[in-house]
Predict the structure.
Amino acid sequence: MGGFIAFAAYRNLKSLPIYQLLDGATVREAMVPTPPPAAGWATVSDFLAGVPADCPHHAFPALDEHGRVVGLLTAAAVRATPRETWSQLRVVDLAYPLDRITVVAPDEPLLPAVQKIDGGDVRDGLVVAADGTVVGTIGASALYHALDRRRLRIAEEQAATKAPPPPPPPVPTHHR
């Protein structure tokens, strides 16, 4: 019965306006944290060989030999490049340069941040802390993932606070 209540609450939440659902949501809630860095001097092939198959990231900060971020290597850019060139192509040569990347802060409101990313050249952005450390990546699709998670959380909260329905009335028994 609890599952039915949760499902009904979730269905009702789908009609809530996006602004209401995202009220108070930050980039931190939607970002993919701690992206593995891509050594800019490595070949794309070498970098990909070190990335686990179940890696949740679709974007990787490209670093120079001093450890500074110089770009962003995206899965979309890799997919758009012929596989036979990966062993000769350096990460830094395929990565988008920083001047084309949207940078957002983890505590920035989510909706405006996603709008900035969606309006930029690249559909992935870097999440950078106040000290300059890259703490995550975020794509334009992060908004939809955050909406789904918030809808589910609110539905679960509503289901948990609803009183269970009253038991059915007893079945009358007739004695002859």
About this structure: The beta strands are 32-33, 38-39, 59-63, 69-74, 96-97, 102-104, 124-128, 134-139. The first strand starts at residue 32 and ends at 33. The helical segments are 2-13, 18-21, 27-30, 44-49, 75-79, 91-94, 110-119, 142-161.
